[in-house]
Specification:
The protein is of the alpha/beta class. The chain contains nine helices and 18 strands. The strands form six sheets. Strands 3-2-1-18 form a four-stranded mixed sheet. A three-stranded mixed sheet has the order 4-5-6, covered by helices on one side. The longest helix is centred in the first third of the chain and has 16 residues. The protein is globular and about 50 Å long.
Length: 347
């Protein structure tokens, strides 16, 4: 098996549409944000949109398109009907892997609401439901990975045998606590055909309720490049854990024994909701075939610095921001609500 890197060719990107059944703080703003994201993705590749009611979702999307002047190529959107609890596709969606002879598999791990924090009885069924309903290429096989609990946002890969993850998430209670870290690593290596797992022992962002998903902290941009959240303000609560993470990243080596090229991304200015700091991070970007979408926070100087740094990391792709501040009310971002599907996986 091989877990492909996000920058490899896609057949599309999956999102799960927010509606009245989902627990969003400001649903109308979140839906507008989703339409902006769908619009940007559809310029480059297809969108697989999971929704409780495709007709209602279509009507709402078209109304937002008209009211907000957001162009969406609806011919690039494929709807899939399914009951849902919430809309974090990165974590309840399928994880695609390649077999040695080009076989196409999607893994259906257990999703239990980030360690039993939130309801997940419906979200845990999404991958199997949309598979059985024929939303994937007929050659794709769905593999039930129970009883292992795994969220897509908790792992990142270079596509060449190295996985990046955090100890705080994968060894947390109410996920796979019956396994030691060495046993968890063995499960990951077997499932994804890995040569090694790089464990981040430090690093956290206040407001994150996933126990430290790596996709808001540090991300592979290539086999030898990692972009990561950096904080230079000693008075920021995130300063010390992120500095410790940076030190560990500097100690990591590629499979060839060389230091990684590290690209620091500034931490956004603090964003609060009802006195609670939200987990804004420019590391929560989405890599498309010829573009990189970055969760924007209003177009300030820090955002411009992040875009410039990521453009250096992805010189052949257009790097741009999508204002994703409404998503922060749910303690997530752009990468959290999307899941890429490799070439040949979508119907």
């Amino acid at each position: 098996m091989r877990l492909p890197a996000e920058w490899e060719k896609h057949s599309g990107v999956m999102l799960t549409w927010p509606d009245d059944t989902t627990p969003w703080y400001d649903l109308p703003s979140v839906q507008v944000c989703y339409v902006r994201i769908i619009s940007e993705i559809a310029k480059h590749e297809k969108v697989l949109l999971v929704t409780t009611n495709p007709m209602d979702a279509m009507v709402r999307i078209m109304a937002i398109m008209a009211a907000e002047s957001i162009p969406v190529d609806l011919g690039m959107v494929q709807f899939a009907q399914c009951p849902i609890n919430d809309t974090w596709s990165r974590d309840h969606g399928p994880i695609a892997v390649w077999g040695d002879d080009g076989e196409k598999f999607i893994y259906d791990f257990i999703f239990n609401g980030w360690g039993l924090k939130f309801a997940s009885n419906l979200d845990n069924q999404i991958t199997k439901t949309i598979f059985m309903d024929g939303n994937f290429d007929p050659d794709v096989l769905c593999v039930d990975m129970r009883p292992f609990v795994l969220e897509g946002g908790s792992i990142d890969t270079d596509g060449a045998g190295t996985l990046l993850t955090t100890t705080s998430c994968l060894t947390s209670l109410n996920r796979n606590e019956y396994l030691t870290r060495e046993e968890i690593e063995g499960e990951l290596c077997q499932a994804f055909g890995l040569e090694r797992v790089l464990w981040l022992e430090n690093g956290s962002i206040e407001g994150d309720d996933t126990d430290g998903h790596v996709d808001i902290l540090a991300r592979f941009c290539s086999k030898d490049t990692i972009a990561y959240c950096s904080c230079d303000d000693p008075d920021d609560v995130n300063f010390l854990p992120l500095k410790k993470m940076e030190k560990q990243l500097r100690s990591f080596r590629t499979l060839e024994g060389k230091p990684y090229k590290l690209i620091p991304l500034p931490l956004p200015e603090p964003i609060f909701l009802e006195g609670e700091r939200l987990p804004a991070s420019y590391a929560n970007f989405l890599i498309l075939e010829d573009a990189v979408l970055v969760p924007g926070t209003g177009g300030d100087e820090l955002e411009r610095q992040a875009l410039s740094a990521l453009q250096e990391a992805f010189p052949t792709r257009k790097v741009s921001a999508v204002d994703c501040r409404p998503l922060l009310s749910g303690h997530g971002g752009l990468h959290c609500v999307t899941m890429q599907l490799p070439e040949g996986y979508m119907r």
